[in-house]
Amino acid sequence: MKLELSEVLKYVHEHIPITDNLGAGIQSYDGNSIVLTAPLDANINHRNSAFGGSLSVIAILSGWALLFIKMKELFLQARLVIQSSSFELTNPVMADFEAVSVLPSLKIYERFIKTLGKHGRARMTVHSKVLCNGVSCGTHQGVYVAVIT
To answer: Which residues of 48-67 are buried (b: 16+ CB within 10 A; e: fewer)?
Structure first.
């Protein structure tokens, strides 16, 4: 199943309203990774840099969107949530930014899908990077749980 990124973004904005307020967009998806974007002006703090909470949300959303699309491609109907999240800011974000999530190894991903099929639930860790003007500004590690509906 091939999903249009505009359809995914529409779903995200309708079901996770804060993402629309933050200006979240989907720049690209290649089957293994996804790039989400957000403007500084919708996420600015009192220091004229991006608010850390916004950075964390966009990073969480990038991992969630990656798994959401992957499950849709396999025609899996599952509820997907973040179970735990860790974000480390390494540089200030002073302009529009992006979050890039990449699937873990094929072996880990296949185990996730197999477990989901066998037990009706599975969890997987996805790592993301927040970039601004090509510079790494933060890293995120999220544990996502899928439950077949």
So the answer is: ebbbeebbbbbbbbbbbbbb
Q: How many CB atoms lie within 10 A of CB 10?
A: 12
3-state secondary structure of 134: coil
Strand order in the sheet with 78-89: 25-29, 33-38, 97-102, 121-132, 135-148, 78-89
The tokens of 73 are what? 């491609």
pLDDT in tens, 60-111: 999 999 999 999 999 999 999 999 999 999 999 999 999 999 999 999 999 9
Using DSSP's 3-state secondary structure scheme, residue 50 falls into strand
Residue of 54, 64, 63, 69 whose CA lies nearest to 24:
54
* 73 within 8 A of 1, measured Cβ to Cβ: yes
> Over the Cα atoms of the chain, what is R_g?
15
CATH class in words for 5-148: alpha beta
CA distance 115 to 112: 5
Decide: helix, strand or coil at residue 145: strand
Domain boundaries, the chain: 5-148
